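Deliverable D4.2, example record:
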Amino acid sequence: MKNFFLILTVSMFMISCTQVSDNHIEKTENHFGTIEVGDAKSLAMDAFNDAYVANDMSGQEELFAENAVANVNGQETTPAAMMEGFLQGHNFYSDIQNSERATGTFVLDNGEIYTNTWFDWTGTSNATGKTVSSPVQASFKWENDKVVEVNFIYNSHDYIMNMGAE
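Output generated by the structure prediction step:
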């Protein structure tokens, strides 16, 4: 009887060690990395976007590597020039908001790390009074805890058409 309980206990232990939890996902051959939300890199990008909305990006240049590249709608520039251009938009628009924001850091199995953020940009044109809205997608590539490449993609047509002359 004693051996029976020992065998039963060992068997139950072995079975419990091989069970997969309900939220476990088996990696397929096409699965390549993980996504983190609320991690330090995602929070840094949320703070970057918050700084833009607040019209004060001081200190944000520290996120970027010395030779980082910025692309805004396919136009290559520096992160400093990108931030300056974004802040100049506050001269033409008020009530700027980034709503419906989602941010996550993609840690790929090959070691590459990207933080992506999506949001709806909204602002009221100082010249026309029209509220302009555009979905925005941004991707930040990290190396050694610094952003080495950033890409912003959005439809700038209505934004430019409603800037007006100051």
